[in-house]
Amino acid sequence: MQKRLEKAADLVQLDAGVYRILATPYQELTVSVPVKMDDGSLRVFTGYRVQHSIARGPAKGGIRYSPEVNLDEVRALSAWMTWKCAVVNVPFGGGKGGIICDPRRMSAGELERLTRRYTANLMDIIGPERDVPAPDMNTGEQTMAWLMDTYSTHTRSTTPAIVTGKPVGLGGSKGRREATGLGVAFTVRESLKHLGLPDKGCRVVVQGAGNVGGLGALFLHEMGHKIVGISDMYGAIHNDNGLDMPAVLDWLKDKGSLEGFPNADYIDNSQLLTLDCEVLIPAATENQITSANAADIKAKVIVEGANGPTSAEADAILEKRGVFVAPDILANAGGVTVSYFEWVQNRMGYFWEEQIVFDRMERIMVDSFNDVVASAKKYDTSPRIGAYCKAIDRVAYCLDLRGIYA
Questions:
Q1: What's the Cα-to-Cα distance from 67 to each of 70, 74, 80, 105, rounded to whole Å?
Q2: Core-most of 43, 113, 150, 294, by most CB within 10 Å?
Q3: What is the domain partition of the chain in residue ranges?
């Protein structure tokens, strides 16, 4: 994140003092989260919440539960949220949170107690006008419901706008579950149009089969493209003639793994990334495309569904080879766009139909894609750095108008 920020800041000739502000998180909180486990023992987990910037509005960003969570990761993700919100021009800053834990080894009761205590520890820095969390890795609608209830209990008022990604019946927005995957599909469509490639029949490889990868693949399948490979956390399946995505997702839901899906070869994730295709969508975790495999990637277009799936070293290799990369801070911004819609709906107490949500998101994603392409052209750089340039312009503009309070 820092390398890309530095490169973009140089291109837009950003003031050195403003650069130092944008390179430094606004606020960080590390908390100890004691939890009584089901066996009666007490464990203490470590949690983080980082607010990178509040120049354009309340901090916005997810909370992840994972053994791999660390403060540097949360810092980087919070900064990416600042740039992502700025790229799609929604009035949020950037934030991110996480707890070091293995949710697969914890019961629902333990996860609820963990979430509630963590929320209580964050009460001084979160709120609908301050910092609005959302789901991320290994968290979801239920986690957000617990967080909302805990916050509301402490404030003695039902406050649905404290989080996004809630169940629809609790103030969530229709279309939120599909939003990131659909935004990825829109970005693929616009990328192909920009490059003059066919709007149907392209071969697509997707790493990840969750709400981003799986639903993104389903939408692209419905648009007429061939999904020739897709993976889950265990491995991947491949069929040159295209996979039946509704059947794939049904199989995954029923079996819990893609292994054994009929009429497909079972391969490992490293093979998946280098399959013959026009479009590659890394929609799993960070640092999947690196200097070790970037030269072997055959895709003409990479659309990043995950946050930070491509290393800075791989960027240079892909750019030299002429691969068009739609960066994460643009491609997967459908989620935060509909999160913004959810926040707006909560604050106004009026909810939109799903098609209205999708239509408004599509307009924002298409406009943002065009903004990024124009910025890349203006600064004679890659789409990724073009996106950073656009984001920096918007955040620095707000900082300049607000001034530095001293």
A1: 9, 13, 21, 11
A2: 294
A3: 27-172, 177-331
